[in-house]
Specification:
- Strands 1, 2, 3, 4, 7, 10, 11, 12 and 13 form a nine-stranded mixed sheet that branches.
- The longest helix is centred in the N-terminal third of the chain and has 16 residues.
- By secondary structure, the protein is of the alpha+beta class.
- A hairpin with a 2-residue loop joins strand 10 and strand 11.
- It is built from seven helices and 13 strands.
- Helix 2 packs parallel to helix 7.
- One of its GO terms (molecular function) is tRNA pseudouridine(55) synthase activity.
Length: 234
Amino acid sequence: MNTKEDFLNGQILLIDKPLEWTSFQAVNALKWAIRKKFGLKKIKIGHAGTLDPLATGLLVICTGKFTKKIPELQGQVKEYTGTFTLGATTPSYDLETEVDKTFPTEHLTDKSIKETTKQFLGEIDQVPPIFSALKKDGKRLYELAREGKQVEIKSRKIEILEFEITRIALPEVDFKVVCSKGTYIRSLAHDFGKALGSGAYLSELRRTKIGDFNVNNATTPVIFKENLGVGTST
């Protein structure tokens, strides 16, 4: 069992973020549990890479002196699995907003869906979604999006190392993607739909790996609290 000194000197904690939790809520749940358990007024704690509330999976959380490792961990290659829904788009590129347009899917074949992944391999230019936490003129993009403002977003270079379709049951297709820091899987969904001559949005997302860290070795925030012996109240 970790001691107070362990947490202060630095721990890397692997958390499996539940659906609809923000990454911030997950960090706060751990912070509360550690402080309560050891009677600490404060402890440094942070995560190495946000997950959207509608995504689940691996959050790497650093405590104490290990918070200095966060930039290095954020730069690691990430692996995701999930589902794209074809034949429609949403403004946020995921389920946060309602479907705004529908597109034909009759022309799609298993072969064309699998072949189209090749267009996205290697270094590509990707435009982040308007509904994202990136800042422009001091405001987060999603704040501007919700105000209905038109914003020009610059593309950025990212790298897709693997992009594999693992199941096709139209309108749904399951995927596995291995990619560089800064990749938006929602944008990949949107661009993939376009490349297929249809539309697509991200309907399910799970982060399975960050560098050598695997979600199979992670625990949920609730289990983390129970293991510390501080119950489940917040």
